Amino acid sequence: MTQTSVLDYEPTRIEAYDFRRAMEEASRCLLCEDAPCSKGCPAKTDPGKFIRSIRLKNVNGAAETIRENNILGASCALICPQEKLCEQECSRTGIDRPIQIGKLQQFAMEHERALNKTYLSKRDTYTGKRVACIGSGPASLACAAVLAKEGVEVTIFEELQKIGGMLRYTIPPFRLPDSVLDQDISQLEKLGVKFELNHKVTSAELEYMKQEYDHVFVGAGTWQPKKLPIPGADLHGVVLALDFLAQAKENHKEMAPLGDVVIIGGGDVGMDCAATSKLLGATSIYNVFLESLEGATAVQREKDFVFKLGIPLISEFKPVEFIGHGKVEKVKFKHITNESTILLKADTVILAVGQKMTDDTGSLKNSEHIFIGGDMANGGNTAVQAIGEGRIAAAKIMESFK
Questions:
Q1: According to DSSP H, which parts of 80-149 are helical?
Q2: Rounded to an integer, what distance in angstroms lies between the CA atom of residue 102 and that of residue 25?
Q3: pTM above 0.85, yes or no
Q4: Does position 3 have pLDDT exceeding 60, yes or no?
Q5: DSSP designation for 290
Q6: What is the signed CA dihedral for 288, 292, 297, 299, rounded to 10 degrees?
Q7: pLDDT tens digit string along 291-325?
Q8: What are φ and ψ of residue 399, in 5° steps?
């Protein structure tokens, strides 16, 4: 497979269940009255309810439950860390293994797509009310969906050319195909949500919006990557993870050969960078991070995928120097508890050490007419957490209308 074609298609590593396999898995559910799996979902997708529907062969009902509670139900089936949330809470964990909730959710969402179904309807509860959502990431999309279902006129303002925020621009297609995200966004369009693309909202315009709209929700995301204050950080070839992933997704045909790659960071973003580097034909790849292998924040299935690609994961080492003359050539690491050091050859170093708010949005706070959520509120957590915060903000906004 060549560099020019490897990211042109949309594979997904989570093979969808067919009807028989879905029924078998759903039949393992203990039908817990208190549904601890549902309590473990920040987005309130309610897996306890939609698994019951699948078990009763009511796949339409399952898809309707997911879509009613989580506008990004199709995307979350693929990217949500279920093993740390709903599946971790599953009562079957103490018997054998948890119900594969993510795969059952994917099955129901694939059913929705195959039938081109629309389960959401728009009410007229708050006709005449207007809300602006700044940013089109998970928090804003979730907030907009809840409001639109109640008849609120919602406009989403997005600085970039496409809807979806980091889901669109930084998650590789082998983990989240664009077609799946588009499936979710189409549900918002059917609810009448309007989108203003290529529209960066300035501080002055935000003040105007506070007068023009009943409320403004800000879910702009943490788009400013963190850097490492160590010698050589400004050398050519030291790149930021979000920039790398965005370029790989949007314009990988124009990328120069990566050569020997070193990724710094043990989260999902670091694993995405490692897998993407492999698919783009890097000569060698090492992923190095501070935490232990078990303590690395990436979900296990992402670590497993990197393992299967033959990429070494080096834990408990921190970078102390980037070495080179104008361009990075090596990276020196030191063990976090002893004097051991390693020196890795590198033509490309990718920093996946986290993000922070940009200067123009980092100082915003909740106020009478402004609500914030998503990465702005939690510092950059999961998409499902952002969805939950968007729903909470929407509930507060609706409460203010009463």
A1: 86-89, 101-115, 138-149
A2: 11
A3: yes
A4: no
A5: S
A6: 100
A7: 999 999 999 999 999 999 999 999 999 999 999 99
A8: -60, -35
Distances (CA, A) of 268 to 31, 62, 138, 231: 32, 29, 17, 26
- pLDDT above 90: percentage of residues in the chain: 78
Residue 4, pLDDT score: 38
Lowest mean pLDDT among 3-7, 29-33, 349-353: 3-7
The string of pLDDT tens digits covering residues 351-375 is: 999 876 665 555 566 677 899 887 6
Residue 136 confidence (pLDDT) above 70: yes
DSSP state of 328: E
Q: In the chain, what are the domains?
A: 19-115 (1.10.1060.10), 130-223+357-401 (3.50.50.60), 227-353 (3.50.50.60)
Do the beta carbons of residue 250 and residue 323 sit within 8 Å?
A: no
Compute the distance between CA of residue 388 and CA of residue 394 in angstroms, rounded to an integer.
10
CA-wise closest residue to 333 among 343, 347, 346: 343
According to the model, what pLDDT value does residue 171 have?
A: 93
Contact criterion met (CB below 8 Å) for 6 and 280: yes
DSSP string computed for 18-66: -HHHHHHHHHT----SS-HHHHT-TT---HHHHHHHHHTT-HHHHHHHH
Distance (Å, rounded) from C-alpha 381 to C-alpha 402? 31
Contact status, residue 396 vs residue 388, Cβ threshold 8 Å: no
Q: Give how far the C-alpha of residue 341 lies from the chain's centroid of Cα atoms, to the nearest Å.
A: 34
Cβ pair 124, 152 in contact under 8 A: no
